[in-house]
């Protein structure tokens, strides 16, 4: 840093960062400027976690690891094999009224992890938006309603975390499991979780025994645990979500779309950090949103024309087509996007 005729000229240090400006004589110490980041924000008062953001590390050529893309798991193929085309009428009425029936057929069979990862690198949790070259964009509740046909009006209730003891009580009371079996299973999960495979087995057993309420709860818990509430283990679902299905006649009053969006926002925030290697939430929602608004990015396939299937959710329009573009290839493509490349 040097001074020319009273003007402070700042120069980058050896690490590429801009040092805090030395105050002029007579200036107040309360107006010192925050340190900026090369290729990133100069004023860090808003993006307070940028120091840990993957974009800051990428600027210096530091990748997340040997694999540049995130680990992203879609349960589309599993759901296709697990979700029957027709449920028994006793279950169908509850599932239909719950507002979650559209999730039975909306999941992509395969996720483009490179495409999803490239967009995640542009997500900032402080603004809940993707920072694109031309401005910011985000997934909205209207997008969720159109893409997934989930209700966006109603009660927004996020159940509190539960202990392992409560997790045992919940499956005993609401999933018809013996206490010893429940304790053994929760202990094997090493926390307040249930395995998706185990829930599927319960669904099959209770359906065969005509225990419709138990079968429906196991089915719905498996369904949301594989879609909108999928976590980064890709095999477990949090026990607290049973609380959403204690009253099968009342769960239709929830804003499932808002819950899905908040969950995805949270996992996008985690995945935008350099130390994170996985993305939870519902990747179908994210990828189909990309297909909707960015027709020139990625390789989207179409299943049907909207005019022919106006009653189906928009996510069912898109399918995965094997692409050759890796994260490295997609980064410059996203850098060069203009408003003309977006379907507004």
TrEMBL record:
Coiled coil: none annotated. It comes from the Eukaryota. This is Aminotransferase-like plant mobile domain-containing protein. Residues 99-344 form the Aminotransferase-like plant mobile domain. It holds the Pfam family PMD. It comes from Pisum sativum (Garden pea). GO terms for biological process: meristem maintenance.
């Amino acid at each position: 840093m040097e001074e020319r005729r009273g003007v402070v000229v700042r120069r980058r240090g050896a690490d590429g960062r801009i040092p805090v400006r030395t105050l002029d004589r007579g200036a107040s110490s309360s107006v010192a400027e925050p340190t900026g980041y090369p290729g990133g924000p100069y004023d860090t008062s808003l993006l307070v976690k940028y120091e840990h953001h993957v974009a800051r590390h990428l600027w210096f050529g530091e990748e997340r690891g040997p694999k540049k893309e995130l680990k992203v798991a879609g349960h589309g193929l599993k759901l296709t094999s697990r979700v029957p085309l027709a449920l028994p009428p006793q279950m169908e009425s509850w599932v239909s009224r719950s507002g979650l029936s559209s999730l039975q057929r909306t999941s992509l069979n395969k996720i483009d992890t490179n495409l999803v990862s490239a967009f995640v690198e542009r997500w900032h949790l402080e603004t809940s938006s993707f920072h694109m070259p031309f401005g910011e964009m985000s997934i909205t509740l209207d997008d969720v309603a159109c893409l997934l046909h989930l209700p966006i009006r109603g009660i927004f209730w996020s159940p509190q975390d539960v202990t392992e003891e409560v997790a045992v009580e919940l499956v005993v009371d609401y999933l018809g499991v013996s206490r010893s079996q429940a304790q053994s299973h929760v202990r094997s999960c090493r926390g307040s979780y249930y395995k998706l495979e185990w829930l599927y087995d319960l669904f099959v057993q209770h359906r065969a025994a005509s225990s419709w309420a138990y079968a429906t709860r196991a089915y719905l818990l498996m369904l949301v645990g594989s879609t909108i509430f999928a976590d980064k283990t890709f095999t477990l679902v949090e026990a607290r979500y049973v609380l959403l299905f204690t009253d099968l006649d009342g769960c239709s009053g929830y804003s499932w779309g808002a819950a899905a969006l908040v969950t995805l926002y949270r996992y996008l925030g985690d995945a935008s950090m350099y130390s994170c290697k996985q993305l939870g939430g519902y990747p179908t929602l994210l990828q189909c949103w990309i297909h909707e608004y960015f027709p020139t990015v990625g390789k989207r396939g179409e299943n049907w024309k909207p005019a022919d299937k106006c009653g189906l959710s928009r996510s069912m329009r898109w399918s995965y087509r094997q692409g050759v573009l890796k994260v490295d290839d997609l980064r410059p493509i996203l850098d060069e996007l203009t408003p003309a490349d977006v379907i507004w």
